[in-house]
């Protein structure tokens, strides 16, 4: 089972133990908070009050918190907003990025140097918060979901990573199709993209996570709190502990009784924010091979 | 001997996506000609119009949402009012910048930003390196992939989520306080304590990004020639000596590169992390340059002043990046752009 090379000395007992302990600690430091949050969200109100806070040992379980969240109302709406923005945003970003990455990937093509320079220059100097805000508001995008998508739709970094992958595809592969008279769009769709599933999945994940986690743009551009995505709701009701059901009419709770959200409900919101990432991640993780990521991490 | 061994591989290739990287493919393709081709413009347009069309949406978005607001920074030299517009707002020269340089809040934010950068250089920067070396020493492939999968994960969590998790663990009503109180001690709340704020944000950054940051070092480790280890072992070098004489020299280019890049980004410590915690901890500890611009402007409507602060930060950041690259080139590393 062990694959250490023959010249390596066998690890000493103390060294091996220390390494095991450190790695166990590292893994536990990531998993333990998630475990407790999930467990608390699934616990009954009694189990939470008995624990006096987060639940560490499984007691009586219940889905009440989730039932309350998804009975309609703030969180249900926020989840739908976040899903919609993530789906639309990822589709737009990925489409635009793939097209441009391919369009700039042919050596010697017309104008590709100045255009690439235009893309790369965005690394060095950002436009700044205030001018960006003024632009978005002058375009009339305040309180529009487009404000969460368009300003961040193209990340130069993702574009460059994708382009360098396309450039690593041998020219002979596409040249023959080109000689046969295939259009560039057809070559991209039929030849290049099928060869680039891994990089497309990873870049898609980067974009999707960016949209799902989108927080500050929503704070900045969405004044109407009925439009808030999930991250803003998470901050408002969990981090700042505001009451979830104030001003919310006819949804699951008794009107007029503004209970602060129970810890289980709060933790259920955290889980809802967490789950899509946990769910999508394993499918993409296997593509985190050196090729994609080494370029990708550099930024 | 070992130190001078030639090294190739991902570590050296780090910057290739950022470069134009085109030259090595030139001539391989039937339709491409040498750069600066003498093919007439009309023929090139006929040949490449589809490629140009493909880049159009991305270039358009970058122009509208990056370059247009970049020009919008001219309001830093105006007394801008949204009701009047850029064209008709009065020009005030450098006065916004003069006020800025006299503003204690601005200097406090700058100082906070630089302190946090310095602190994280010492207490965050080495963590991914150590983690990568540790992960690299796990020889069972499946176990290693499992651990990697877990430590990369928090990188994909939002800052709201990370701060919330920390609050639940270490906040006033969090798990740790709760345990302490159960055992008769007084609880504590590091989420609102300005004195330990720098520790808190660094711990959060380590939790969120150290695993992900290790990837680049893992790639560099994988590129180290295994024969070097074997040769060193045969020469009688112990495990630690091999780490010192083979592993660390192998990582050196990446470490130098990332260190320099981080210094070039010294004014950027991240926005959301501080935005989220500024209220709880207070301005004195948690105001960084980016949050300064936000609070000073959007709440008061002093657009020109905020734009001036943003511009100062942007220009200073650009100068730092250029210096960092000069230093990188002097060290014989590539930096983020190539020497021209």
TrEMBL record, chain B:
Keywords: ATP-binding, Cell membrane, Membrane, Nucleotide-binding, Transmembrane, Transmembrane helix, Transport
Source taxon at top rank: Bacteria
Transmembrane segments: 51-68, 114-135, 156-180, 210-229, 250-271, 303-324
Gene3D superfamilies noted in UniProt: MetI-like
Residues covered by the ABC transmembrane type-1 domain: 110-324
Alphabetized GO MF terms: ATP binding
Family named by the database record: Belongs to the binding-protein-dependent transport system permease family.
Name of the protein this chain belongs to: Polysaccharide ABC transporter ATP-binding protein
Protein source organism: Streptosporangium pseudovulgare
